[in-house]
Amino acid sequence: MDKIKIGTRNFKTEGHTYVMGILNVTPDSFSDGGKFDSVSESLYHVREMINEGVDIIDIGGESTRPGYVKISDEEEIERVAPVIKSIKENFDIPLSIDTYKSSVAEVALREGADLVNDIWGLKADGKMAHVIAQADVPCCIMHNRSSEKYWDVMLEVKQDLEKSLIIAEQAGISNDKIILDPGIGFGKQSKENLMMIARLKELKTLGYPLLLGASLKSVIGNTLTLPVDQRLEGTLVTTVYAVRAGAMFVRVHNVKENVRAIKMTEALIEHERNKDGSDFNQEA
């Protein structure tokens, strides 16, 4: 497949990395909890991200940071449904719903969401895959597990994702509607997270486009010994790695800076490929 239709827009699966902007309508997200938990504040931030060049917006109503408190389906729906509805009424931008709960996904899709982003890879809720298939929308399947113990992290992440892909196939989700996410910060320690980012391209052997979501996460904070509000530069490095790996999306908090980093990286890659057949590793 060379493209995925999300909402009314066609996204290339190869040759360009798109920006998924994060909109957390939660009071307790690790980086921006409480900033955008009203409809008016959310709309303001959406307009800001659109002006900065965002390609799709990912809306989450439950924080999934380490130690998060799980909320009911009803509370999550109350948070996301009016925001999705208002965004669709005011802007022409594809929307993703960040949830692992089928009932939340069902309402979000009804209100206008165009993609389901499931942090548990269709495994937490047995109805999720069927909801996605019935709605005939794309989905992002993320790797996650309850244990952080691995004997071969890359192999096991692939195996876990293959199990999610079986669930998707059995439910009737089309192959051309699936994006894979290695799940940075989920079920992994910092060393595994670094390895997954560095070796991201290896996941392309599964045959699906990739999304990297490393923005401001603890792997950056632990590596640089920095708090969450000082992790932008580290995030931009992970975005460069995602572009080099051929990822389709990066999921980020800071849209403008990541759009610029992608543009610069892609310009350099184009020069690397085309100018006199040269390579950065070769001396002039």
Question: What would you report as the Rg, rounded to the nearest angstrom?
Answer: 18 Å
**How can the largest sheet be summarized?**
8 strands, parallel
Low-confidence stretches: none
Instruction: Let me know the number of strands.
Output: 10
Helix proportion of residues, in percent?
A: 40-55%
Element order, helices and strands?
EEEHEHEHEHEHEHEHHEH
Helix/strand/pairing class, anyone?
alpha/beta
Question: Strand content of the residues, in percent?
Answer: 5-15%
Note the total helix count: 9
Strand order of the largest sheet: 8-7-6-5-4-3-10-9
Distance between the termini: 37 Å
Mean pLDDT figure: 93
Shape: globular
Tell me what the structure shows:
With 284 residues, this protein is α/β, with parallel strands linked by helices. The chain is built from 9 helices and 10 strands. The mean pLDDT is 93.
